[in-house]
Amino acid sequence: MITWVNEAGRLLAAGESVVLVTVARAEGSTPREAGAKMLVAREQQWQTIGGGHLEWRAAEIARQMLEADCAYGARHIERLSLGPSLGQCCGGVATLAFEVLSPADLGWIGSLATCLHQGRACVRRVVLSPSGAAAPVMLDTSGNGGHRRDACSLWQKGDESELTDIVAPQGFNIVLFGAGHVGQALVKILGTLPCTVTWVDERDAQFPAAWPSNVIVEATDAPEAFIDQAPPHSYFLVMTYSHTLDQRLCQQIFQRDDFAYFGLIGSRTKRRKFEHRLRDRGIGPERLARMACPIGIEGITGKAPEVIAVAVAAQLLRVRELEDQLESARGDSPAHAMAAADLLVR
Asked: Which stretches make up the XdhC Rossmann domain (predicted)?
């Protein structure tokens, strides 16, 4: 899920103009990487480019651009030295691109949202001229941008600059079975992370009245279907009210060889029992080793739902980071790739 695209579409459809702020170039130590984004309206802002004085100054410039008599025009580039000019300890230099988005931009925003929903990366090209004039945004939705996370390049072309912005699906898809206390606590945390969540339970009344925008609720008598429908490299979490249902879901998940993570809530005693039952059904020890149970990062022993949820979210993020290391290592030496793969399965 790319939250800035969804949020921009919602605001523009409501007739509100906003400014998209992008970290176009990051030199040295900066709070966020190139590609990080923030949306700024007259009274609110969404997402972050790192906080502190940098973000405050960016929001100030963006709100000036929303005024009719602004000298910046519709697009602007600002190079900010975090140490001397902003007094931040990072000491690096962040080059920010500012773009005023109006309802007239709904066309390319909608095309971008559709492309991302289909799992394809997009390349967005924006010309930033000294006059601040707004040439049409160029969007390549062919998927040729690859499957990397957001990345930016800023090119100088005479008096003009061109921002090449690769926008890709986050690829962090979670299927969560169980809407009990831990599931509800976990969804609140996942709602703040760059992921999509399919939340599955047989009990419709168990779901809350509202849930985060990156969560899809599925009340169903056939939860196993959502295992088969999940895209490759999905993250599966099993925490239902029934051990019998848990076991069915575990067996179905083990039918796949392409999951990034599989966690089962429960104690070490539950793990031993499930391993015994699953071995009797043909699941080998090397496959069973990929099941995280108990779930959550080590060292957090609290049993309150909120504590478990924090530990599980941290474990998911750790696996995600290791996946990124593995992806980078594939383009590196075989030794580096093997080391990253070893970390991923620990």
From this structure: 174-316
Rounded Cα distance between 165 and 125, Å, is 6
Give, for 64, the enclosing helix (H) or strand (E).
helix 52-65
CA dihedral in degrees (98, 104, 105, 109; nearest 10)? Answer: 150
CA distance linking residue 190 with residue 33, whole number of Å: 22
- The answer to whether the CB of 65 falls within 8 A of the CB of 102 is no
* Span 230-271, pLDDT tens digits: 988 899 999 999 999 999 999 999 999 999 999 999 999 999
CATH, domain range 173-327: 3.40.50.720
Question: What letter would DSSP give residue 294?
Answer: S
Query: CB-based contacts of 338: which residues, under 8 Å, 6+ apart?
Result: none
Q: Between vectors from CA 3 to CA 211 and to CA 200, what angle results, nearest 5°?
A: 35
Q: In this predicted model, which residue has the larger pLDDT, 265 or 29?
A: 265
61: three-class secondary structure by DSSP:
helix
User: Does the pLDDT of residue 2 top 60, yes or no?
Assistant: no
Angle at 124 between CA 119 and CA 126, to 5 degrees: 165
Q: Which amino acid belongs to residue 341?
A: A
**% the chain with pLDDT above 70:** 87
Sign of CA dihedral 332, 335, 338, 342: negative
Residue 184 contacts residue 202 (beta carbons within 8 Å):
no
Average pLDDT over residues 193-198: 88
Long-range contacts: 35-44, Cβ < 8 Å, 24+?
A: 35/149, 35/150, 35/151, 35/152, 35/165, 35/166, 36/150, 37/4, 37/150, 38/4, 39/4, 39/7, 39/8, 39/11, 40/66, 41/11, 41/16, 41/17, 41/66, 42/66
Boundaries of every domain in the chain: 3-167, 173-327
